[in-house]
Amino acid sequence: MGTLRKLKVTEMHRLTVDEFKESRKLPLVVVLDEVRSLHNIGAVFRTSDAFLVNSIYLCGITATPPHPEMHKTALGAEYTVDWKYFKNTEDAVNELHTMGYTVFAIEQCEGSTMLDKLVLETDKRYAVVLGNEVKGVKQEVVDMCDGCIEIPQFGTKHSLNVSVTAGIILWEFAKELAK
């Protein structure tokens, strides 16, 4: 086996903030419905930056940048990824529908589409709603969505941390939509 040398940050050729702002984004909006943890919010910003998500909608009790605790996990992504605040998640979903987005709740629902069976169309725009750490996506919001996506799980636990969920979901959307 050959030598595997870790790359230095300077060798990774990452976008500058200005290049990120000007780059073509995924046709994807992440909606955070009442997410309480600043660390989870920051992690979602960082993952959204990594996969060139168009923007994040922060709803209800979800905190907005700038915030030092959020910055600990966002590491500056709160300044690169566009965001917008809504007092009510329902208003965010209404706006997305008005703009032609297909909106999915990431939730365990009757009739959910399992993530490994999800088929996306590259000419459509999508939004995914991620819910509160304890209660998930509010039923009123689920009712407004075009469908639910569920991550298959095989162990004893019935849920994943919201930032872990975001990473899995955003990777799958990026794989499909960046083709």
TrEMBL record:
Alphabetical GO biological process terms: methylation
Keyword Transmembrane helix found: no
Alphabetized GO MF terms: methyltransferase activity
Gene3D superfamilies: 3.40.1280.10
Domain called tRNA/rRNA methyltransferase SpoU type: residue spans: 28-171
A matching Pfam family: SpoU_methylase
UniProt keyword list: Methyltransferase, Transferase
Protein name: RNA methyltransferase
Species this chain originates from: Phocaeicola intestinalis
